[in-house]
Amino acid sequence: MTSLSRRSFLATSARVGALAAAGGALSACGSSRGSGPVRLELFQFKSEAIGIFDRICEEFNAANPDIVVTQNFQADNVTALRVRLVKGDMPDLVTINGDYNYGALAHSGVFRDFASSQAMGTVQPSIAEILATLGSGAPGENNGLAFANNGSGIIYNKDIFDKAGLTPPTTWAELIEICDELTAAGIDPFYWGFKDNWTGAPMFSSISGGYLTDGVAHWYEQRRDLDSGTSFSDLRPVMEKMSAVAAYGNSNKFELGYNDANQGFAQGKAAMYWHGTYAIPAIRSYNEDINLGTFATPADSAKDTKVVSGVDVALTMGAEPEHPEESMRFLDYLMNEANMADYCSEQVAYPTLKGMSATDPALEGLTPYFEEGRVATYSDHNFPQAVTLNAYMQQFLINHDVDAFVSVLDEQWNKVMKRLNETA
């Protein structure tokens, strides 16, 4: 583990404490001192990827006898990382989801700057920019390497579409027409599982991606300025579309959670499923033969349609790592094409390196958007945890009250941002 300097610790611990206010046991590993190989800890958060990260570590260790990398899986890695940071005990190597928590930690200055690194130069620019828009230690810095991406749009059952004579829509009006046609044919257009309150967020984010034509990150940057006059009332059209489309589909939507919905969709109970590509392995676990496709959530005009994408796995290390050369050697190894291809194939994810594309047939519908750089970040990734967006969104999907949804988001956002600004 990296020991932060006293200056870095004093500078960051207060900031991390403030982030924790707004917002596991460690395995036997650590950086060696003296003789013997350098021992590095890989602080890793994805339970479904434990096996492949173990294999990568083993292969790296065999090829680099002067280094031993050991994986330390932490399900609630952000909480565990904050505790470690307050103690001045930064892990050597970190995997983290590219969301608000990543941005807040990056902004606090605890992560290394990779902006001018050779590894950053291999990442597709539109994907690399996603992490930078979430937060950075200083202007111009990029504090994480995007290792794997997901795409959020609409997953559909190709067999149901083919039988109904349908093709993926290119505009919002066409999507509604498809919903009406399916309903008339006695087929549920969508399968929902709103019992888990976060399951409305993919719809919110992907509709926002095509509506906020000046950029999702740009809009939220304005909204963070409490003097800008920006309000969530700007997103009324997004909310109205959510309300309209949520009316199509299974009537028991609030009785089912995410796993229930994965199973129901896998059983062919609806034509479409509004989630990111992260859901595909779970759907296939219930029906390995299901014929899946994807398409980007259509905007009013096809030219404005973007695929909403997030960095599912970002790689980083401390701002002042104890073993920078050895740590970077491992990150470079992780970022090579063979390891990235293996990971993305197993996890049904999009590779981030220039010249690489997804190979899973279910991902073909979103691939052109990545190739053309027509990518938007998740709207919900811009919300501080203290603004309990998912709870408010679930209530909105129950009562369809746009005015109340706008009001509570504005009220809670302003209160939390004021507090964060005062403690910055």
Which word captures the global form?
A: globular
Q: Class of the largest domain, according to the CATH hierarchy?
A: Alpha Beta
CATH superfamily of the largest domain: Periplasmic binding protein-like II
Low-pLDDT segments, ≥5 res: 1-33
Number of helices: 17
Order of helices and strands: EHEHEHEEHHEEHHHHHHEHEEHHEHEHH
What structural category do the secondary elements indicate? alpha/beta
What Rg, in angstroms, do the CA atoms define?
22 Å
The CATH topology assignment of the largest domain is D-Maltodextrin-Binding Protein, domain 2
Q: Taking all residues together, what is the mean pLDDT? A: 91
Proportion in helices: 40-55%
State the CATH architecture of the largest domain: 3-Layer(aba) Sandwich
CA-CA gap between termini: 27 Å
Report on the biggest sheet: 7 strands, mixed
Concise account of the structure shown:
The chain is α/β, with parallel strands linked by helices. It has helices spanning 6-22, 50-63, 77-86, 100-107, 125-134, 158-164, 172-184, 201-211, 216-224, 236-245, 258-266, 280-286, 324-334, 337-347, 367-371, 389-399, 402-423; strands at residues 2-3, 38-44, 67-73, 89-90, 93-96, 145-152, 154-157, 272-273, 292-295, 307-316, 350-351, 375-376.
Kindly describe this structure.
The protein folds into 2 domains: 2-151 and 310-366, Periplasmic binding protein-like II (D-Maltodextrin-Binding Protein, domain 2); 152-308 and 379-423, 3-Layer(aba) Sandwich (D-Maltodextrin-Binding Protein, domain 2). The protein has 17 helices and 12 strands. The chain has helices at residues 6-22, 50-63, 77-86, 100-107, 125-134, 158-164, 172-184, 201-211, 216-224, 236-245, 258-266, 280-286, 324-334, 337-347, 367-371, 389-399, 402-423, and strands at 2-3, 38-44, 67-73, 89-90, 93-96, 145-152, 154-157, 272-273, 292-295, 307-316, 350-351, 375-376. The strands form 3 sheets. Strands 2, 3, 5, 6, 10, 11 and 12 form a 7-stranded mixed sheet that branches. A 3-stranded antiparallel sheet has the order 8-7-9. Helix 1 crosses helix 3 (77-86) and helix 16 packs antiparallel against helix 17. The protein is globular, with a radius of gyration of 22 Å. The protein starts with a strand and ends with a helix.
